[in-house]
Amino acid sequence: MEYNFRSDNESQADSRILEALIQANSNSAFAYGTDTYTTQLDRLFSDLFETNVVAIPVSTGTSANSIALASVTPPWGAVYCARDAHVYCDEGGAPEFYGNGLRLIPVPGDNGRFNAAQLAATVSANQGHGVHSYAPASVTLTQSTEAGTVYESADIAAICEVASAQGMVTHMDGARFGNAVASLGCTPAQCTWKAGIDMLSFGATKNGCVSAEALLLFNRPELRDRVERLRKRGGHLLSKMRYASAQLQAYIDDDLWLQLAANANRQAATFAAAVDNHPEARLEYPVQANEVFVRWHVEGFERLAQLGMQFLLMPGQDDLARLVFSHNTPDQETAGLCQALEAVV
Amino acid sequence: MEYNFRSDNESQADSRILEALIQANSNSAFAYGTDTYTTQLDRLFSDLFETNVVAIPVSTGTSANSIALASVTPPWGAVYCARDAHVYCDEGGAPEFYGNGLRLIPVPGDNGRFNAAQLAATVSANQGHGVHSYAPASVTLTQSTEAGTVYESADIAAICEVASAQGMVTHMDGARFGNAVASLGCTPAQCTWKAGIDMLSFGATKNGCVSAEALLLFNRPELRDRVERLRKRGGHLLSKMRYASAQLQAYIDDDLWLQLAANANRQAATFAAAVDNHPEARLEYPVQANEVFVRWHVEGFERLAQLGMQFLLMPGQDDLARLVFSHNTPDQETAGLCQALEAVV
Amino acid sequence: MEYNFRSDNESQADSRILEALIQANSNSAFAYGTDTYTTQLDRLFSDLFETNVVAIPVSTGTSANSIALASVTPPWGAVYCARDAHVYCDEGGAPEFYGNGLRLIPVPGDNGRFNAAQLAATVSANQGHGVHSYAPASVTLTQSTEAGTVYESADIAAICEVASAQGMVTHMDGARFGNAVASLGCTPAQCTWKAGIDMLSFGATKNGCVSAEALLLFNRPELRDRVERLRKRGGHLLSKMRYASAQLQAYIDDDLWLQLAANANRQAATFAAAVDNHPEARLEYPVQANEVFVRWHVEGFERLAQLGMQFLLMPGQDDLARLVFSHNTPDQETAGLCQALEAVV
Amino acid sequence: MEYNFRSDNESQADSRILEALIQANSNSAFAYGTDTYTTQLDRLFSDLFETNVVAIPVSTGTSANSIALASVTPPWGAVYCARDAHVYCDEGGAPEFYGNGLRLIPVPGDNGRFNAAQLAATVSANQGHGVHSYAPASVTLTQSTEAGTVYESADIAAICEVASAQGMVTHMDGARFGNAVASLGCTPAQCTWKAGIDMLSFGATKNGCVSAEALLLFNRPELRDRVERLRKRGGHLLSKMRYASAQLQAYIDDDLWLQLAANANRQAATFAAAVDNHPEARLEYPVQANEVFVRWHVEGFERLAQLGMQFLLMPGQDDLARLVFSHNTPDQETAGLCQALEAVV
């Protein structure tokens, strides 16, 4: 018995996504995003988000984030982000590459989030020195966060107000956007553009696709050309883009994305409850999406692993583990995990 | 009746490729290229090319080319290429982006090719001025070429000798590499590393894949780290890379790639013969792979289009058309095209 | 006897320039360009050019050109220039560096110049392919040219009209701008912004300064911030900028720059007349500024060198020499050169 | 009465430096650094530092630092530096620009310095994640520091050992290197390459030059080409470089640089003693070079300013002032400052 709670990046694609990909293969189609699968995306995402959306498919979340930030940040501009943000810690400098040497400035905060006051203080401490300093240009926040928590729409709105007062553009890294929306129970619009978000990296790969992400621009059609130029120069203008676009269509059709995310969240909540009941193990952060961080002794984690539970220890910390639940994690595997946890005291 | 000879980028994926992709979905797998589909690629490509190969999957041919050139060309280095090379004319400056401002220098030549003497003369004319000039760093040639022709292995070897004498690294853009090998009837090794090629963008998407390209390094393992860094920063390290790698495995398994390319070439040859027999239309270049360029009067092309034949006129030239034949072009469609051509005099 | 006609880059500074530099040392002064020597430059250059000018001192002509082009050309933008332009042939890729991978596209022409029709044809041949191509962004012309010729104001105006029709910004590389204005006998305004030029690299170092160049923006105050950001990031915001600014003030005061250039031009004209009268040597280009290119047999050049005349042969061409006359070339040295030429038949 | 303690960047050039500049104007000279003033620099600096030195003159400290770091740090490499380092806080992102998106990672520490253990801990916390993280590439420390303190040679050696163990190259930002050496009383060699430093930005402008900095490479001749390429692309290859090189020659001749720095340090020490004796004002950091940071109430600083003393308050802190003493600060001005301080209680 091997149950995989290592990462939603390791999960399979949902069968309905695969079927859409196969369906897209039934005929020839125009290349480089001029096919009808792709040209429909603006309308479909505009419907989903209830506003004017430009939807740009790309290969990866890293490219979506980097292209987004580079499109609104000059090389001498600063991007404010959480200290553990993927763009800052896990993308090998892709934002700096696409942004020709822009700088990411981490904002302190708790539970994977920062708040409006923390942002304002950090911006204030990093400017005021003219050309000698980086100029504040953009803010990015991750929804759901790297800590498995979720920003409330009101918190996002407060952050976006600070950004707007400084003339900064706002971006959301939505690698796990579905998990956040499923958790909040709001509309996609409410926690994005209605709260002041300008751009969203709409992640789909982790939550059931083969390879499909989209960069969404909310009511900012003037950015399309820059974004498309950056995508082309980055080598992300797929010649057979229809296969990515067909996945995206199936993913948002009939709220499939929210159903998939809801399962992942539900499994996480089940396990979080088991941790809460455990005499020793404890939750490191509030569990609000599909990731559970557990603080425990190393021997406990070793026993859990011996029982066939696969998960990751955080780098440099053998008493902190991350368990990720996926769109296709079955109840039975989560139950098995909970039993294994109970068995180790 | 609509027959599509516009581009192999518009063709479908082969069913065996799709099956491999579906098969790769049967279980969870490690992320970011640590899965077994991907880790086997070095061995499989080493077998195919009969030497030590590092195989790096990427999303697009543009990224394969750009990462390859940037990994061996400093920002102050020059890349020599054909005047109509894809890297120079069709990639929106991706090589300059990945290479932080390197310069592409076009080499004159005929039929989409340049030769060793033309390369030597161009290099000579562009250097000798120390830091004031770009330093010669790399050479890239396209196989099969943008004109639908093919370099003989001996011609490649002569070019690589000139490159080597200048300390330049050699790269082959093999977006249609299968068509070239099928045309030459040589082994993949003969027209690449045995002729002096250091790196190959091994294209698969045009010739039957959904989305799969690989950058191959021949006996240059020391370049792996730079290439992997560039891939990550470019956002091309796919989280679910197994789906691309599985395609590549199926593509080279049992010579599928050569069978697919052979069909495309055969259809092109059939049509080329029809053009040769036509009283007015004539072939612009020798037809050696799967592209046929036809010089004719605009009225002829218009009639052909009215008969349901889809193809592209070259930009700014209404008397020059390109017709591309694909891995899945059926005999019947080519026969229909030939009949249509004959019907228009 | 050694007379130096190798380059105006080798000439001394004029004594009035040195005096200004020494005068600027009489007291302490604000740093990083906030001193009064520097803050007066906008007004002084606005007076000289009879319009609103932003004047940005930098260290070198290369940095002036690169910053100018990068400030108006996105990374995916093309800069059109003459085939032998300094930015293209002699700056080691500085424009591509500052411009994050922009592309320089050479325009064919004669005598170091291109004309409006040649520009229009080249732009037309290099676009129309959307994100796959570079976008036309700017045009740069050199005044006086690398061939020692000068553009008439009407020719500049015609070029700028083509540029404007394509939405391109115009830049003039004025490394030898004084020689051009002295040659044309026009006002500085006439051959720049009145003809449609947006930005000028106003060279002073070659024509009598120690180290002083200025990038001038004509009626484009909105570009100041970008230019100043690029200057800072390039490391050209001098801490003790007053010394450069004091040189620039002295250089344009009382038309010193035009007097200096006029001497250089007069010496060149004297020598050009001697070449015209010579039975074998001939002028390669019309002599309109301070550079004379002579086509002759190699033995002639060798004899001239043996007689103590220092000059450069063009790279790869031992039958083509360049002789440059400077602001401080004395009549006697030019006379000596002419005599030496006459002596060699 | 106005006494200027704002910055050594506002001080005049020393008369011996000016004389050398004037002397360099007595004849024509080769351009672009091939003149004899420049070609002698390697030997002169090798003598001064008692080892093999490559000396590269540049225009500014920012360019010296940026070129140094970019020459040894790939775009995916991290540069470790102090939290208040000039390269991190005051250069507008020039290192990121020259380094094509490298990342500066601040190391915590006290009094403007970090130590070996702090460096090791920070490096350890920022790596281990393969291509997803930046790779450790270089370390830069500032001597004397931004806080007016000085690293002991033994502390430098300990830092360089940590760097070396990680394969990192070491750089020293010596914008005020003369002040540090004068303070330590060691040889220039002892606190640089003998302690493990690979590259030094040898500052001269603040300490008595018009405009002259040199990047020194210790026993690393293989870096020369990269450094010269970066300098050219940055636009810092001065056409009339002799004027900068002549300044540098005069600056190090007969220990002029140390005499000048010693005066600045002595004035700072005098004022530091006065602060120590003051009932309210106190020194923020140990005074070891030519900068004095004073913590006091805002009314005190206001009175001091009213008495004609010019100095800067630190950004965002009206109770912390910086006073800088220069190579040419006369005893009388420092005495006046001390009296003013005593007068304000």
Describe the model.
The structure is a homotetramer. Chain A is α/β, with parallel strands linked by helices and about 350 residues long. Chain A folds into two domains: about 5-10 and about 255-345, Aspartate Aminotransferase, domain 1 (Alpha-Beta Complex); about 15-255, Aspartate Aminotransferase, domain 2. The first copy, chain A, has 14 helices and 13 strands. Chain A has a seven-stranded mixed beta sheet with strand order 2-8-7-6-5-3-4, sandwiched between helices. A four-stranded antiparallel beta sheet of chain A has the order 9-10-13-12. In chain A, β9 (about 280-285) and β10 (about 290-295) form a beta hairpin. The longest helix of chain A has 22 residues, at about 255-275. The first copy, chain A, is globular and about 60 Å long. The mean pLDDT of chain A is about 95.
Global mean pLDDT of chain A: 97
CATH topology of the largest domain in chain A: Aspartate Aminotransferase, domain 2
Number-wise, the strands of chain A total 13
How big is the Rg of chain A? 20 Å
Query: Widest sheet of chain A: strand order?
Result: 2-8-7-6-5-3-4
| Separation of the first and last Cα atoms of chain A | 21 Å
State the helix count of chain A.
14
Largest interface: A-B, 50 and 49 residues
Q: What share of residues of chain A is helical?
A: 40-55%
Write the element-wise H/E pattern of chain A from the N-terminal end onward: EHHHEHEHHEHEHEHEEHHHEEHEEEH
Shape annotation of chain A: globular
* Biggest β-sheet strands, sense, barrel of chain A: 7 strands, mixed
Descriptors:
homotetramer, 345 residues, alpha/beta, Aspartate Aminotransferase, domain 1, Aspartate Aminotransferase, domain 2, 2 domains, seven-stranded mixed β-sheet, four-stranded antiparallel β-sheet, 13 strands
